[in-house]
Amino acid sequence: MVEMIIQEVAGGVSVEMDGQLTEAEQDEVAHKVRWMLDLEQDFSAFYTLVREEPKLAHVEERAQGRLLRCPTLFEDTVKTILTTNTSWAGTIRMVEALVARFGDPLSADTTRRAFPMPEQLAARGATALCSAAGLGYRAPYVVELARAVDSGELDLESLKTTDMPTAELRKHLLAIKGVGGYAAANLLMILGHYDFVPVDSWALKTVSREWYGGEVVEQAEVEASFEGWGEWKGLVYWFWDWSYRDEGGDEKKENIEDEKPVIPAI
C-alpha cells in the first residue's frame, strides 16, 4: 500500500510521500493523482454547450466539471452501492464502518485507515459485513464484487481506459450485482461518460420542485428534463443551479442537501 498526502497549494496541488520512489513508482503516483483529480478530461465542448444557460453560467467561470474519484474503480463501485436506498448520512456511516473494521492503518497516522482492499473484503462473509458495518442487503453484493475483483474474474480497472461505447459499458456495469440504473449512471460519470442521469429520490424531488411545481414525477420526467443536453446531460444535472438554493431558509436548504448522494466535484 502506497500512502500519499495530497493538498492544495497556490496554482495546483502538492503530493507528498515518504521514502524514495523509482521512476516507475513516480509514474504510477502521477497516474493515480491525475485519475483522482480528473485532470485529463477536456471540458471545452461542455463549456461551449452550457455557456448561454443562466443555470450553468457558473460552470465555466469556476472551471467546474471535474469529479473527484477514488484511486480504484473498486472503491468507487462499493461506495456507489452503499448510496442506494439510504440517506447520505447512512452511506457515510457504512463507509466509515468498513474502513474502521477492515482497512489497514496508515503508517503516517495510525489513527486513520485506508479503504479495504478487495482481498480484505473477499475474506469476509456477508454476515460479517452486516454485523460490523451495517451494510444490510448490500453486504452480499459487496462480498461478491470483492471476490470477483480479487480473483481476477472482474477487471474493473480496465474500464477506465476502454473504448467501448457508453451503452455497452453500461451493460457491463449493470451486470454487477447491486448496480442498477442509478448506480450505473453514477459510475458512468466517474468513468467520464455523462449520457445518463443518475435518477434517485433526490433527483425526483429536485426536478419536481424545479419544473413541476412539486407534483410527483417519475424517472421519465427527470430524464426528459435533461434530454436536450445530449452526451453531457449527466454533468448538466450535477452542476445545475437548482432553484431550491434560493428558496426558503437555511434549514430547508440543509435538509435537501443532506439527502443528496454526492460525487465530490471541482
From TrEMBL:
Residues 82-245 form the HhH-GPD domain. One of its GO terms (cellular component) is nucleus. It catalyses: 2'-deoxyribonucleotide-(2'-deoxyribose 5'-phosphate)-2'-deoxyribonucleotide-DNA = a 3'-end 2'-deoxyribonucleotide-(2,3-dehydro-2,3-deoxyribose 5'-phosphate)-DNA + a 5'-end 5'-phospho-2'-deoxyribonucleoside-DNA + H(+). One of its GO terms (molecular function) is class I DNA-(apurinic or apyrimidinic site) endonuclease activity. GO terms for biological process: base-excision repair, AP site formation. Belongs to the type-1 OGG1 family. PANTHER family: 8-OXOGUANINE DNA GLYCOSYLASE, OS07G0657600 PROTEIN. This is DNA-(apurinic or apyrimidinic site) lyase. It comes from marine sediment metagenome.
